[in-house]
Specification:
The chain has about 325 residues and is α/β, with parallel strands linked by helices. Helix content is about 40%, strand content about 20%. It is built from 13 helices and 12 strands.
Length: about 325
């Protein structure tokens, strides 16, 4: 081997994780399966996280991304497909895809992101510190976050006395009940707006208007993430100030968001995938929860609603969309 070639070879080995080199020597690159609802800033953050960890699709890994959207009934098939492809790790970005992946394999490591479940009580993990088995991930598991959103919406709409809560009845019961029980002024009553599909959104908002709601708290679910633009537009057209925990919600026309930095969570999930490819045991990687939360306010939407957002609230905001 020529000296120049030898140096290049050494440089490549240093830049790539060890497992990628051994797999490539064996003649095939490690495959990462990824089940995500849709292409978004979150899926882009996951891919960026892989690159930052030294894994590039087509160079030292093959990324098998699947975006089934709202077709929950297809998830079992998608998970089985990724198992049949002999993926080295499966990334599952919501509770439905986590369940499908867990059903499809008990041996392939799974890294999950779940905003709606408690990982221990749901049986996904033995404990947060040592989840055990072939699973680990990132969980929001703060159902009382809805109470904070109520508090912020009341700050933005001081005369608010009737508040509607839009939630996904297929997965969000714990979230809704925690929101319902959260402390709030005695003068503020809640109206429950359960939905089960995108076709229910318009009717739910109409019901809120009919009951003279002054604001809308939108809880989280994969369905709600996929339909956040529709929900934001429907609420704006109905002149309902709305808050959600997805920080992209105000960017598509919602009034406010308060929640964790979701792209950051997906980047961290990619870091876990990289650690597993390098030999880490998923059952020994602690389940993590977000520690940083951001308030985002859309002033254009506020003006369209005829609202003047108090200076005190604007001062608390991490991002203000003009």
């Amino acid at each position: 081997m020529r000296r120049r070639e030898f140096i290049v070879t050494l440089g490549g080995a240093a830049a790539w994780p060890f497992v990628a080199c051994t797999q490539e020597t064996a003649g095939n690159l490690p495959r990462i399966g990824a089940i995500q609802s849709a292409r978004s800033e979150n899926s882009a953050a996951f891919e960026q996280g892989l690159r930052e960890a030294g894994y590039v699709d087509g160079q030292n890994i093959v990324l098998e991304s699947r975006f089934p959207g709202a077709a929950i009934d297809r998830l079992d098939e998608v998970a089985r497909e990724l198992v049949a492809l002999k993926c080295s790790v499966i990334f599952a970005s919501n509770p439905y895809s986590i369940r499908a992946a867990r059903k499809a394999t008990s041996t392939i490591p799974i890294v999950g992101v779940d905003l709606e479940s408690d990982p221990v009580s749901s049986g996904l993990a033995k404990s947060l510190a040592r989840p055990g088995g072939n699973f680990t991930g990132f969980f929001l598991d703060i159902p009382e976050l809805g109470g904070k959103q109520i508090e912020l919406l009341i700050e933005a709409v001081p005369k608010l006395s009737r508040l509607a809560v839009l939630w996904d009845a297929t997965i969000g019961a714990v979230q809704f009940h925690a929101t319902e029980m959260a402390p709030r002024p005695a003068s503020v009553t809640l109206q429950s707006l359960p939905i089960r599909g995108m076709e229910d959104i318009h009717g739910a908002v109409e019901e809120a208007v009919h009951e003279q709601a002054h604001g809308l708290v939108v809880l989280s679910s994969p369905l709600i993430f996929l339909q956040r633009s529709q929900i934001a537009n429907t609420a704006l057209n109905a002149r309902l100030p709305a808050i959600n925990l997805f920080n992209s919600f105000p960017k598509v026309g919602g009034l406010m968001a308060y929640g964790p930095d979701f792209p950051s969570i997906f980047t961290q999930a990619a870091g876990y995938v990289a650690r597993i490819l390098a030999g880490a045991n998923p059952g020994e990687l602690p389940i993590q929860r977000p520690t940083k939360f951001a308030l985002v306010i859309n002033l254009k939407t506020a003006r369209a609603l005829g609202l003047t957002v108090p200076d005190k609230l604007l001062a608390l905001a991490d991002e203000v969309i003009e």
